[in-house]
Design the sequence.
């Protein structure tokens, strides 16, 4: 009995030790479990305390986030509408070109003065002159017509050629020059500025889809009171040379009269006297087969040279150039309507 009692006491002591060890282990785990949320809570408290010292930073961050979201929203909406709008646009032609071409195109000239709004061509001719800036202005525009600089889609057009949207007529630089004159409108001759025989380059402004209505009726030409007599005689000579006696159809609608004629003269009688004869060549205008302009790739505008061969030095001369076709209108109060006006002063 005594041995059994001793064994029961030893078992009881062992169980009590095990329970005590388990309770100690449980208390250790529970203390660790309490430490984690306590640490996290203290961390958030410290962060919040620091942020309380920077209220502006919180507001700025909120504004930045809002702006970023709003910007992304705008970009998505703008991109959608831009894509939808691009589907309605022609790659070549503007949506509405009627207002631009209602009265016909105007003219532009080279060289351009350094002052953007100025129309005065002023220079000193001769070896010590200051004309080099003007010749550079011509070279900058005239140089784009060099061989091989605008390849593709180019054809040598005839008088009955009809323009399309994929081809363009060849513009010959050599064909525009009067090679018989000693001071020619060429780069080696400094476009006449060295010799006091300045050349001015004219080109028409581009109007998509606009096509000239030529003067085929010589009687109608004679009735134009504002057209210079010299130009009228040139039109008659062109008809007599190319179409007279070559059939009724050709006489009534001469292909060589399919032109936008150009006239240039002094604005006043004094300007006409001091300007002297103004040579316009070679065709005295722009052939109609260059039009309509359809925004063709590498398109080159036709051009006309005019040259002052007896310009009076030291006198400011005002010159007005006009385009002539049935659907080109002029306005005495607006020289740029259907033409251009500029001043030239040679010293």
Sequence:
């Amino acid at each position: 009995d005594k041995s059994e009692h001793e064994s029961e006491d030893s078992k009881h002591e062992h169980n009590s030790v095990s329970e005590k060890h388990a309770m100690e282990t449980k208390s250790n785990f529970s203390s660790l479990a309490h430490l984690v949320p306590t640490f996290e809570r203290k961390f958030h408290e410290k962060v919040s305390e620091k942020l309380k010292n920077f209220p502006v930073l919180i507001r700025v961050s909120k504004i930045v986030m809002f702006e970023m979201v709003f910007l992304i929203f705008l970009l998505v909406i703008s991109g959608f509408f831009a894509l939808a709008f691009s589907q309605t646009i022609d790659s070549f032609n503007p949506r509405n070109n009627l207002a631009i071409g209602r009265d016909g195109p105007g003219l532009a000239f080279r060289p351009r003065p350094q002052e953007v709004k100025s129309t005065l061509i002023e220079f000193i001719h001769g070896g010590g002159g200051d004309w080099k800036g003007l010749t550079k202005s011509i070279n900058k525009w005239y140089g784009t017509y060099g061989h091989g600089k605008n390849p593709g889609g180019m054809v040598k057009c005839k008088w009955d050629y009809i323009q399309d949207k994929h081809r363009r007529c060849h513009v010959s630089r050599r064909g525009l020059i009067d090679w018989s004159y000693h001071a020619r409108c060429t780069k080696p001759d400094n476009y006449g500025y060295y010799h006091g025989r300045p050349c001015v380059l004219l080109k028409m402004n581009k109007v998509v889809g606009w096509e000239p209505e030529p003067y085929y009726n010589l009687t109608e030409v004679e009735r134009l009171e504002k057209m210079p007599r010299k130009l009228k005689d040139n039109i008659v000579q062109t008809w007599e040379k190319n179409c007279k006696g070559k059939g009724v159809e050709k006489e009534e609608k001469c292909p060589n009269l399919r032109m936008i004629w150009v006239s240039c003269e002094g604005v006043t009688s004094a300007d006409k006297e001091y300007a002297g004869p103004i040579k316009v060549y070679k065709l005295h205008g722009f052939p109609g087969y260059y039009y309509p302009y359809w925004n063709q790739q590498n398109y080159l505008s036709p051009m006309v040279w005019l040259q002052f061969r007896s310009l009076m030095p030291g006198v400011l001369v005002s010159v007005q150039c006009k385009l002539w076709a049935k659907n080109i209108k002029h306005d005495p109060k607006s020289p740029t309507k259907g033409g251009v006006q500029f001043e030239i002063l040679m010293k």
